[in-house]
Amino acid sequence: MSELREQLLSLIKEMALEIGTVVLSSGRTSDYYVDLRRIVLTPRGAYLTARLLLDLVRPEVSAIGGMTLGADPIVSSMIVVGHMEGRDLCGLIVRKKAKRHGKRRFIEGPLMEAGAKVAVVDDVVTTGNSLLRSIERLEEAGYTPIQTLAVLDRMEGGREALSAAGFELESLFTRDDLGIAPRDHSM
């Protein structure tokens, strides 16, 4: 494991991982919760997350996008760190609901050419629904999502749902990296 990856994993375990029963945004109950905003909204965490995810972004990608709120700090960090390293990527934020005024858009960000290739990112993937909704909204806006990225894959069906839609999920970490055992649903 690279030194940067070890540092980010350590931050996640120290600052973002909570053991205990919680209801996730998917509606599922879990024995643990990972609040990555606690990491990606710190200078070191934002840098490490962006640096490591940028290594996964395909060369033909011209924008990074994702669903608000989980993707917002990640997208912002990635475009800044990318620029500092000579890779100019635009940021696209996908709204959960269209604006009620103005152009009533689902996508915020610079105007880009139709068909621009996008890497779609999320902080934590459980079912994959947030990434799938982002992909749908980006396609409706004329972009071409070609890649899905996440910081953490909870390994609860999201990877499979994305695969069924024709996307391979690339994540920096999985539940296994956190040392969390799969939940026994037979009880």
UniProtKB/TrEMBL annotation:
* GO biological processes: 'de novo' UMP biosynthetic process; pyrimidine nucleobase biosynthetic process
Which Enzyme Commission number(s) are on file for it?
2.4.2.10
Q: In which pathway does it act?
A: Pyrimidine metabolism; UMP biosynthesis via de novo pathway; UMP from orotate: step 1/2
List residues binding 5-phospho-alpha-D-ribose 1-diphosphate. Answer: R95, K96, K99, H101, D122, D123, V124, V125, T126, T127, G128, N129, S130
Its EC top class is transferase
What does this protein do, in the record's words? Catalyzes the transfer of a ribosyl phosphate group from 5-phosphoribose 1-diphosphate to orotate, leading to the formation of orotidine monophosphate (OMP).
Record domain Phosphoribosyltransferase: where: 110-160
Report the protein name in the record. Answer: Orotate phosphoribosyltransferase
Q: Name one Pfam family in it.
A: Pribosyltran
UniProt record similarity statement: Belongs to the purine/pyrimidine phosphoribosyltransferase family. PyrE subfamily.
Q: Which CDD domains match?
A: PRTases_typeI
Q: Which UniProt keywords apply?
A: Glycosyltransferase, Magnesium, Pyrimidine biosynthesis, Transferase
Which GO terms label this protein's molecular function in UniProt?
Answer: magnesium ion binding; orotate phosphoribosyltransferase activity
Q: Where does orotate bind?
A: T126, R154
The UniProt record lists the keyword Iron: no
* Necessary cofactors: Mg(2+)
Subunit architecture: Homodimer.
Gene from which this protein is expressed: pyrE
* Catalytic activity reported: orotidine 5'-phosphate + diphosphate = orotate + 5-phospho-alpha-D-ribose 1-diphosphate
